[in-house]
Here is the input.
Amino acid sequence: MKSIKPFDIIVILFIFGITIYLMKTENEAIKKAYIIIDEKKYPLNLDQNGIIDLKIYGKNMKVEVKDKKAHIIESDCRDKICIHMGYVKDCGDTAICLPNKTAIVIECEKNRYDGISR
Here is the structure.
C-alpha cells in the first residue's frame, strides 16, 4: 500500500477549498424588499434602520426596518395577525395585512453566473 505524500495532501486541500467556494457562491442572491399597497409596489431599503409611517399612502400602519429585516409594528386592522407574522428577512418571506391590502415582500434575484462560469 502506498503512503500519502505531502503533494497529495495539498491537492486534496485545494480540491476541498474549491468545492467550498463553489457551494458558497452558488447560494448568493440579490435581495430586494418591497412594500405592496393596493397592488402598487414600492421599494423598501433594508439597509436603513427606522420606522416608516404608511399614512402617506392612506394606510394607518407602521413598518419597522431593523438589522436588514422588516416587520409591521402597528396596524388598524381588527385581528392584528400581520403584526404577529414577525420579521421578513429571507428570500420569499412575506408579511401581509389583508384588511389594509398591504404586504412586505422579500424577492431574490439569482446570480446570473454560477461558481463555474465566473
User: Anything to note?
Assistant: The chain has a mean pLDDT of 86. The first strand starts at residue 29 and ends at 37.
